[in-house]
Amino acid sequence: MAGKIEDYAMIGDLRTGCLIDRTGSIDWFCPSRFDAPACFASLLGGPDNGRWLIGPRGRARTTRRYHPGSMVLETTHEGPEGTVQVIDFMPIHSSHTSIVRLVKGLKGKLRMQTDLAVRFDYGVAVPWVSRHDDTTLLFVAGPDQLCLRSKIALKGADMRSRAEFLVREGDVVPFVLSHCASHLPPPPPLDITETLTTTQGYWREWSSRCTIDGKHGDLVRRSLMTLKALSFQPTGGIVAALTTSLPEQIGGARNWDYRYCWLRDAAFTLLAFLNAGYRDEADRWQHWLLRAIAGSPQQMQIMYGVAGERRLEEWTVPWLGGYEASAPVRMGNAAAHQRQLDIYGELADVFTQASRGGLSSPQRRDALQEVYLAHLETIWRKPDEGIWEIRGDPQHFVHSKAMAWVAFDRAGRGETGNFSAATRKHWRHVAAEIHADICTHGVKDGHFTQHYATDAVDASLLQLALVGFLPPSDPRIRRTVERIEESLFYDGFVLRYRTDSGVDGLAKGEGAFLACSFWLVDNYLLVGRIKDGERLFERLIRLCNDVGLLAEEYDPHAKRMLGNFPQAFSHVALVNSAYALMMARERKAKSGQLELPRAIRTAATGATP
Questions:
Q1: 69 and 44, same structural domain?
Q2: Residue-range definition of the domain harbouring residue 356
Q3: Are 64 and 165 found together in one domain?
Q4: Interatomic CA distance for residues 481 and 471, integer angstroms
Q5: CATH of the domain at 383
Q6: Are 252 and 511 in contact (CB under 8 A)?
């Protein structure tokens, strides 16, 4: 049985990654790239669906940490007779994807074990296993090959490779598992000492460039390293999470594949990198975005593969029972073909934030902006599936309309592009029309609503003040925040919306959505409630696991994480809220008054109609 979601740590090589639990079991690994078929899928099934354990044979007390400033994981097992440390990492800039595991004897002696079950194609394809030489095993099935190098002799049993070995003080026992195509020779051996030094050096140099410091500096750097580890270095794309189908409700069907790149994440992620001083990462993300959406605006999708792939067909895996029986297990994501109006606003905000951050203007950006705004002008009145990608009937979601307003508002201001005064005036006119439509149809009882046909609220409405739709002092904004506090608080955290409304076409029930809770922190700051913002922020960061990672959601009753892991959206929100808090404190200390934090997505607000 897989561990709790928060029991996992991630290591990665900027192409893919794997999850390791406290016992030392790697339960999820997709070799070569994030969305490749997994060869370790125990996370969504069981050990027979593939995993790699290296851990103590008997009872031991386990602690772990990342090496400071890096994605190198150190796990220490302290048994009755001795202490052993396992160093896990994935080499950076290697020609092949590899997992390196170093077992070091620190004190006395401790009996260890390894249990390797390779199952290609998401845990179903049992490979041929052959011995290449005295220290090398090859695992081959179809297009894939894994090569294990170790001085420990593993023996085959029950279609798994196992061994027990005694580790004494001063011993160093290395294991290296490398992937390559099955028609090629095995990857060459690694110089492990040099590889570890290079990998640690890369991460430490990268993390040292973070410009956000202070009280939460270490946690912010850990979140930024997690975002970097979720990036696909060859293209600059950033996946939403390492995993697929980790449930938003244990035993439920809200299980989605997050190993893709969402346009919605774009502006938040770009802002996080810019706020922290990572201009190169922000620029690469901007250019990836424009390459991915190149073409007809009618064909723009809400998400793409790491290289910009558009075919993300969704299918279910019948042989995997799901994390704690949460089925179905899904690969691909049908939401890629939904209409979601908010992505046009996110795209416009990327251009605006990139321009404010001094980034270069990508080729054909102006032409793209002109054609997608012309398309948006023809569809903004239509219902859509919204930010939460509902699988029920499309609705006139207020957040979606507001982000359509953002698209025309940003273009009409004149901060980006080389457009005529008449064109910008027209865009401002469309923005005003959308603004008036929302304020006419999307307000009931003095607050904004989830969509035009309801009086319920949605946590996405917290974005209205953050993007400048109305000033935070506007009574409708204040009342909306109050209604969210009244109806969406779940033991001190924020739900996305009430799932018992049936709006999403799915069975009710899920955890609190962590990014939404960080958005509430930002809203508190905008109205001067710094103490409330600080308290909620502190409550949220206490949810990080022992190595600083967050999932998508949290169940306050069961006190456990839910959803895919680690979740980029949660870590982006943490970085931006931490920056907003830091700026709010600094500016209040200097002026005695709260000023709008730069981390909020706009420094100007829309006109109140």
A1: yes
A2: 209-591
A3: yes
A4: 13
A5: 1.50.10.10
A6: no
Q: Are residues 419 and 561 in the same domain?
A: yes
Whether residue 316 is found in the same domain as residue 425: yes
Provide the token pair at 170: 């001063």
The residue whose two tokens read 């999307």 is: 442
Helix boundaries (H) for 488-567 = 514-526, 530-541
- Number of domains within the chain: 2
Cα 373 to Cα 376: distance, rounded to the nearest angstrom: 5
Q: Which residues fall within 8 angstroms of residue 395, CB to CB, at 6 or more apart?
A: 383, 384, 386, 450, 451, 452, 453, 503
pLDDT for 260-314, tens place per residue? 999 888 778 988 999 899 999 999 988 898 899 988 888 989 999 999 999 999 9
Domain boundary among 170, 204, 238: 204
The residues, ordered by sequence, that sit 6+ positions from 16 with a Cβ below 8 Å of its Cβ are: 29, 30, 31, 32, 33, 34, 36, 90, 97
Shared domain for 420 and 468, answered yes or no, is yes
Peptide bond into 80 cis (omega under 30): no
Q: How far apart, in whole angstroms, are the C-alpha atoms of residue 60 and residue 143?
A: 39
Res 483: pLDDT: 97
Q: Which two tokens stand for residue 66?
A: 């990342």
Same domain assignment for residues 62 and 149? yes
230: which residues sit within 8 A by CB, 6+ positions away?
Answer: 12, 17, 34, 238, 239, 240, 241, 242, 566, 568
Interatomic CA distance for residues 464 and 454, integer angstroms: 18
Q: Which residues contact 433 (CB under 8 A, 6 or more apart)?
A: none
Q: Which helix (H) or strand (E) holds 409?
A: helix 398-413
Rounded Cα distance between 368 and 413, Å, is 17
Length of the chain: 609
pTM for this predicted structure: 0.95
Region 109-132: mean pLDDT is 96
506 φψ region: left (φ > 0), alpha (ψ -120 to 50), beta (else)? beta
Provide the pairing of β-strand 9-12 with 17-20. antiparallel
Distance CA 544, CA 554 (A): 10
Question: In the predicted model, what is the mean pLDDT of residues 421-437?
Answer: 96
CATH code of 111's domain: 2.70.98.50
- Secondary structure of residue 445 in the 3-state scheme: coil
- Name residue 498's amino acid: R
